[in-house]
Amino acid sequence: GAADMDQQLVVDQFRQDGPIRPSRSLDDVAWDELLRAPGADDVVADVLRAIVDAAVAARVEEVRDSKKLVALDASRRQDAKSTVSAVRSFQWAAQVLSVEVPELYVMSNVPGGIAAVPVAVPSTALGPDVLRGLTARDLAFLAGRHLTYYRPEHYVLIHYPTIGELSALFLGAVKLILPELAVPSHLADAAARKRKLLARHVDKDAKKRLDE
Predict the structure, then answer these.
(1) DSSP 8-state code for residue 205
(2) How many other β-carbons are positioned within 10 Å of the β-carbon of residue 70?
(3) Among 47, 113, 115, 192, which residue's Cβ finds the most Cβ atoms within 10 Å?
(4) Three-state DSSP class for 71?
């Protein structure tokens, strides 16, 4: 309400329609400097980044063996060039955030509107709540927030969502390199199981990064 008529004319003249158009994508440095939460631990992030592929493969193996692996309907998968607003918002946000777009599936019932699906290939389900009635700005925010989980250091959270599972995974990964490391007694058995599972899936490059 402070602008006079001439100032308001200038604002209206240069006001953008639709999403902003960033000049470049965020790189790792920008993530660390601008978006990383206060208190985030670089070592924890690096350990999880090093073993993410092995951790996901191990969890998918566990779930498949217990016959609880989710089967997604291929006919519900959205093409990357889809004109659905939510899909376009994910494509846009992924480009800005330098994150790979997960496979997107339109479903009839998705709690919260958007949900990561813990399967072998990164996948996200979109429900009616985000498929209609939201502005481009709201969709951009929701897509950007969700895609944060697809950063390599965060992706294990989709498959290991509780602090207990994540703690056991982290300690199991560290014990691949430091087998004599002492761990809290209440996590010892779980960490040992995670170490055994990870050992079957971790490759030489991942183990080298973990060692570093």
Answers:
(1) H
(2) 10
(3) 47
(4) coil
Residues 166, 22: contact at Cβ < 8 Å?
A: no
Identify any residues that bridge with 104 across adjacent strands, giving them in sequence order. 124
Q: Report how far residue 155's alpha carbon sits from residue 48's, in angstroms, rounded to the nearest whole number.
A: 9
Beta strands in the chain (DSSP E): 103-106, 114-117, 123-126
Whole-model pTM: value is 0.84
- Rounded Cα distance, 101 and 103, in Å: 7
Beta strands at 123-126 and 103-106: parallel, antiparallel or unpaired: parallel
Chain mean position to CA 83 = 23
Is residue 163 over pLDDT 80?
A: yes
What is the tens place of the pLDDT at every residue in 122-147? 999 999 999 888 988 899 999 999 99
**Strand, coil or helix: 107:** coil
Which element (helix H / strand E) includes 210?
A: helix 204-211
